[in-house]
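Budget justification note: compute hours in this period were largely spent on complex prediction jobs such as the one shown. Inputs:
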Amino acid sequence: MFTKQKPTTIPITEIEQSAFCRTDETLDVKPLAEEFSASVRWQGIPSEYLHMDGKELTARIRNARNLLGDRLTILGHHYQREEVIQFADVRGDSFKLAQYAASLPYAEFIVFCGVHFMAETADILSNANQKVILPNITAGCSMADMASTEDVIDCWNDLENILGQGGIVPITYMNSTADIKALCGRNNGIVCTSSNATKVMEWAFQKGERVLFLPDQHLGRNTALKLGIALEDMVVWNPFKNLGGNTEDSIKNAKIILWQGHCSVHTRFNVNQINKAREKYPDVNILVHPECTMDVVQAADYNGSTEYIIKTVTESPPGSKWGIGTEISLVSRLAKENPDKLIFCIDSVVCPCSTMYRIHPAYLLWVIEELINDNIINQVLVNDDTAEQSHIALERMLSIV
Ligand code: 13P
Ligand code: SF4
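Corresponding output:
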């Protein structure tokens, strides 16, 4: 029985992506009441938090944080706003934060300033008595939303019908729901991040002759090309078409099946922007994230995960020039922290990741002030079976890289 054609639905988070794009090149925080005018879903919050300015929010977060002491650890992804990341005990990309969550010795509460799939991962990897909190529960990820559980199960059933059990190894990028990670855990598969996708894919090809890569087709394609797999050996699975838009033969002949998902932030970059940067600064180094499209990655001088981007720029000589293709909050921070270098985003429109941006400092303040009153808001809790199966897929990743 093969999947039937379904009507195409665009994830709400994808439609909302441009809501915070600006041309004035500043990202300074405004009171939450003003930011509510951007047409994205916001979580309701008590009205006392709506009108505080950046200064007041910073002072109150500092105070609440001090009162909680060692009971609280704040983790922050590098794409978070300045006014939020300043409070992170640990900053990292998704791999580093997952490693950290797995090794946190104490801390009753882990407040995760990032997006929902990262908080789920922290819940799976942390101790049973630690509580993981996402300050704004509407901070999802458009890429993760592109791989619904139902669509991925349909795809997996079709692939097993065609290829037989064990005919394909599933890899899911960290940027996916716990359900998808659990499907990988249950079926001898694994999780990867942009820091370790190459090693994980090599591991998968030692286990089987084909790979299903979810949900980012671009990271999957860029990684497979690095391993010398030809484009002709890759097919894309469109969840809205029968057999993903493929034939049984094309699936049998493929080495990689790429889920048709993408990051709404990194697919904004294009080769034209790279050409313009090179025209303006002939000695510029172009450095992009591997969630960018294949032509952008191939036109760039370097590509790698968020931690790789930070390390490469930080360790570069004074006077060097960097045109960067990744999330703007990180690029602005790199520019500020490296005043002896020229650092700019290759896209001249300032577009933060709209879901990361939903962690406004007012939400951070609200959830930690409530913790002082022993009131837990927005705990992210993965059910036991899903947690157990996704833990297997995450542990496989953590043990090989
Ligand atoms: P990394 O943190 O793995 O670089 O991924 C980037 C990203 O898009 C996170 O959502
Ligand atoms: Fe998702 Fe892209 Fe935002 Fe990361 S940057 S959270 S992949 S939409």
